[in-house]
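Fold these two proteins, one after the other.
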Amino acid sequence: MTDPVIVGVDGSASSLEAVDVAAREARLRDAPLRIVHAFGHAPGHRPSGVPPWSPVDDGLEPMARGVLADAEGRAHAAAPGVAVTRSVVAGETVEVMEIESRSASLAVVGSRGLSGFSGLLLGSTAVHLAAHGRCPLMVVRGSADPSGAVLLAVDGSDAGGAAVEFAFAEAALRGAPLVALHVWNTWSERAYEGPGDPLSAMVVDTERLREAEQRLLDETVAPWQKVFPHVTLERRLERARIRPALIDASRDAQLVVVGARGRGGFTGLLLGSVSQALLHHAHCPVTVVRGEE
């Protein structure tokens, strides 16, 4: 049996929108849907003498059951026929969802929940799961173009191979074209791009660098193009600032797929700057796929 698609709900508009998307994703995968609501006390706010993850207020559970009932109703409306289970789990949301992700094919969350601070673009649950989840994470944001392509952010990293495979599989599953976009510039080998980095900050052989980046793109997608020969693939090489270019390209996509970390960044970071930028600013849902550790 296919592992379930899981979705975290807290009653917020963002999480209910995530339920709609998760239900359709479950139907697409012929998988069951598991709706999870976690509740408990945040660190530092637990009453004295109360054990961790204990719902001391008996009124919380009926409220949670109501949230789940609403979510289940939306799931059945969005994807009739999908098998739906629901669960109230006592515990911190990020930890509960991380545990749930160990036995899921896909985790889906909204971009923000009820506990977010005004002005934040992305909730803590999404950030934590993108870095620590055990299955691909889809963060529902923006407005997906159902006729658009699946957009793959190609970075050429070893860990990014899982994202490439996932993107091809998603395009095949959806019957959608795949755009493999590799953005490069003369700072591509740096740990990160500063906001004011020019496209050419030093004297380099730009043509030789462009050819190397084209080879990287070709070599990244070639093996998977053989596995998925029916997927219509566009290889796109663009010289630009990486994060803005990918965010702009997401306007016409139905889904962006990105690895958790690329070639740049600092050793030990679990979530790179490019994936974080897309999670905060993409114009359509984003799926972060972690490679093997």
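Now the second one:
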Amino acid sequence: MSSLALSVVLSLVSAVAYAAGAIVQERVATGDGHSLAPLRNRVWWAAVALNGGGAVLHVVALAYGPLSLVQPLGALTIVFALPMAALFVRRRAGATAWRGAIMTAVGLAGLLALTGNAGSHALNGRDQLIVAGVTLGAVALLALVSTGTHRPVVRSVILAGAAGIAFGIASVFVKTVAVGWKSGAVTEGLPALLAIAGFAATGLLLSQAAYRGAGLTAPLATVTVVNPVIAAVVGLTMFGERFRYGTTGTMLALACAVVAAGGLILLTTERLDTENRAAQTADGALPDAADVASAEAGAGAAGAAEPAAEPVRPAHAPGTAVLTGPVPAEPAASVGPSAPAGTAEAVRGTFSAPRPLSVLMPLECLGRVTFGLSPYPGTEEQSRSSAGPAEPGDGTESLGAVQTLTPPALR
């Protein structure tokens, strides 16, 4: 097998390892919502091993083949992830996800193929501090912005972008260490090794958080695109690298970047549409608040349109006392020691239809409470028999003894 063919095979296997690691990470994130819980999960460490194996295979492929071929083949990770997810975890992607994945892979591959290589360059001590400081600030800012975002997909894309930045800068420091070891300056690469370890761990944790509640395709595509693009930006700005074919190559690279960005947008909107459909399905199982309000309003209108039902008058046994209150439209007459004898008939007419008092009635509305015998027909003889002979002219011939009780607050 030739060196070129070997580099192609290693690049494809590296892309498959990256895709498998991403699938495992997404499954772990779906099963456990805590940020640090995956560290205690053996399956998550299997994902770490897959990602590490993919990185090693990618470096070996670069040793056997040109950068212009190996780097674009790494963009196939997102394309391999979709059929692998459908095969192993039974998660099929829709047509929009496939279009977005293919657009992202094609745009990224074209962009990397047009990126030139200016030879072996490394960051000096001052440049390393500048790049590390700017990277830490950008990653921290994106992580802070993600905490205020409530949409899971948007938050996932932001975190994946931060992870891609960390991975891309780690790749830059890997190149710096490789150049230092090649020149024999092994000890000078120790700060860069610490930076590689820190940025790689940060990117791994951020990518794990990005998979939580946002699916597989959008975060994986974001990390896959941002990682090499950040490395290419550093190479263009600090290593003196240029796009191939001059101005034409630069224009083609911009067009490829637009295609890759369009693929990312398709993947993000596809996931947002999935979330919206799931939310609508969940809301459809519950009654809408507007429907409940309209139903209550209709019930209130129907109740107002119906005539008020006559209250049921309780039956009273003959000779029992009835507690009644005054009616505003029919003022009640009081019967007391100072009342004339003819007021008994007025009391009879006023309280001919006893009405029960309200449960809560202000004291001012209570007035005077009159206790008397129930003036229903057929009770006069029983009242006389129970109360004894009535004195003539005292007003109790047809009505039993009546007593008026005035509340203390109104005396």
